[in-house]
Amino acid sequence: MLKHFSKLNTLYLIILSLILFLVIGYSLEYVQIFDDFIYNLIGLNSFLTPLMYFISFLFNVSIAPILSVLAMGILVYYKKIREAVIFTILVSFGAIVDLFMKNVFVRERPLGGLLAATDGSFPSGHTFFALIFFLSVSLCFGDFFREKNKMKFYLACIFSALLVGFSRIYLKMHWFSDVLAGFALGIFSFSFILFFVKYFLERKN
């Protein structure tokens, strides 16, 4: 799938996603009205609540690394060593960026959150890491599928990442802008690493 990402297009993604993230990050007081609207708009549902708990649980700090190691193990088992290395770099870089950004921006979480949390609200770490994870999965596992099924697989990965973001808003753990910033930061981090991976592979060849 790497061949579908040109360095120029990847550079555009890096710039645009970084701009979006910074605009949101430095405009939090102005977007709070919209955040409050979304917060009050979403009500709890007896069917959705357990599902949202489960989805959010999959990407907490104790489970997400297990999923990542499992994915890497599958790649190694099928002798996809290059993909395993790329996957490892992507998720590791994502974890480092997430820790750094939580210390740069200080924002209180919404009141009434359904889960315990002690760190800041901005950006949504669950959303950020979920996007990194599923983009990495789509990149490294795409060749496991036949051509006619690849698009379904890619869409499933994107939908899964969006679902994680929605779960964080639904559970009152993040504001909408936190989640949007998490997606922007995820695209930036993924594109940033991908740009240098492409550069390295082209130099090597």
Classification by helices and strands: mainly alpha
State the low-pLDDT regions, or none.
Answer: none
What is the H/E order? HHHHHHHH
Task: Work out the count of structural domains.
Answer: 1
Largest sheet: none
Q: What percent of residues adopt helix (DSSP H or I)?
A: over 70%
Overall strand count = 0
Q: Over all CA atoms, what is the radius of gyration?
A: 17 Å
User: Which overall shape is indicated by the principal axes computed on the Cα atoms?
Assistant: globular
Mean of pLDDT: 85
Tally the helices.
8
Distance between the termini: 17 Å
Give the percentage of residues in beta strands.
Answer: under 5%
Describe the structure.
α1 (7-25) packs antiparallel against α8 and α4 runs antiparallel to α5. The chain has one domain (2-204). The model has no long low-confidence stretch (mean pLDDT 85). By secondary structure, it is mainly α. The chain is 74% helix and 0% strand. The protein is globular, with a radius of gyration of 17 Å.
